[in-house]
């Protein structure tokens, strides 16, 4: 619009000028030696216009000619970059396809064409890894650390390498640096947490876990479940450092986080007992017994040893049984106290209720209690021997079993000692050691048993089995097909 107005204005100006010239005729005189001439004014003006146009055209030609080399150079550079990016893309595709040679070829091509190491170093490192040249890959990753724009990727590559080499300390150091660079990246937080747990840095892991929950890198529910186990790790860490009060404080926090967490219940009770805080302990154990009966709580409940006389112990275990009368652990704990008090009839009654008939398959420790009962009540050595034979082939006692690798542990730990699985220990019977088929030998004459199966049950072993029960006997009885208790997680 503006251009149209300007054009119309100029055209009007030209018309006005032409009219003015027509009304005011004139000429320009030229003299060169004897030669004289006159040029009319319109011709002079026309000549000037033509001259100006020619100058403008020449200038434009000169200006274009000057830019030609630069334009050719730019065009070449553009082509080179396009080929470089194409090589980079093809290299990445080759990495994804696992074609090591093609990946290396394209990485070199891209490096030459692009001349930008930050773009090609990662591809070169990946190509080196595909070729199995971890040393070269490591050099590329380390070179990436020197540039701010690639440092994070370099750290990630070195971290993965350290993990593959099983070097947890180096991996942890790289994860720490990665967190400094990108503190809100979810995989950095979860990886750092995982490595801190593996190194037993529980308090640092707790801090990282809280950050991960806050940033939704770990779901709220999963994180709260993990917190209890990590707090117990902090408790173990504090106890190892000799700080028992901090250990108890962490165990209490763990229990507050998850009131039904069996390891937390056991640990708090154990630490309270060690600290001499036994006044409220029976009450706390009775509260826990309703949801998490465990053999370790039994000795803590009565203070262990001979602190109480046998009849008082029976009375206390009767009270405990009332809290959870249907659980086998209650009956075993009471039967143990009754045998100690030589109240044979009641002890037999409670053990019989657990299933000890010819058609039953009682667990090993129930068989051992029955042997002790027979020895104390009747002195029938054949019956004793028969029960010990049954104990040898019965289902084993439960333990803390790793859900990932099946390793058994006497005490709960946040990490499996064999495979480092985290929070994987459940209180249950080892799956690979279920009871043998019910021994027919229980019904056989003792002499036959002695010849067939129980040849190795010597008198010494017999005496040993009749000794007062150890902690193993306090483990809860398994069912025939015992489900995992799953109270640890
Ligand atoms: Zn394991």
Kindly describe this structure.
By secondary structure, this protein is mainly α. Helices cover 64% and strands 4% of the residues. It has 21 helices and five strands. The strands form two sheets. Strands 4-3-5 form a three-stranded antiparallel β-sheet, with no helix packed on it. It has a two-stranded antiparallel sheet with strand order 1-2. Strand 1 and strand 2 (35-40) form a beta hairpin. Helix 11 packs antiparallel against helix 12 (262-274). The longest helix is centred in the N-terminal third of the chain and has 57 residues, at 41-97. The two termini are 78 Å apart. The relative contact order is 0.05. Residues 441-489 have low confidence and may be disordered. Residues 402, 404-405, 407, 416, 418-419, 421, 424 line the site of zinc ion (ZN).
Q: What Rg do the Cα atoms give? A: 45 Å
Counting H and I runs of at least 4 residues, what is the number of helices? 21
- The shape is rod-shaped
What class would the helix/strand composition place it in?
mainly alpha
Secondary structure: number of strands? 5
Largest sheet: 3 strands, antiparallel
Any low-confidence stretches, pLDDT <50, length ≥5?
A: 441-489
Brief characterization of the structure:
By secondary structure, the protein is mainly alpha-helical.
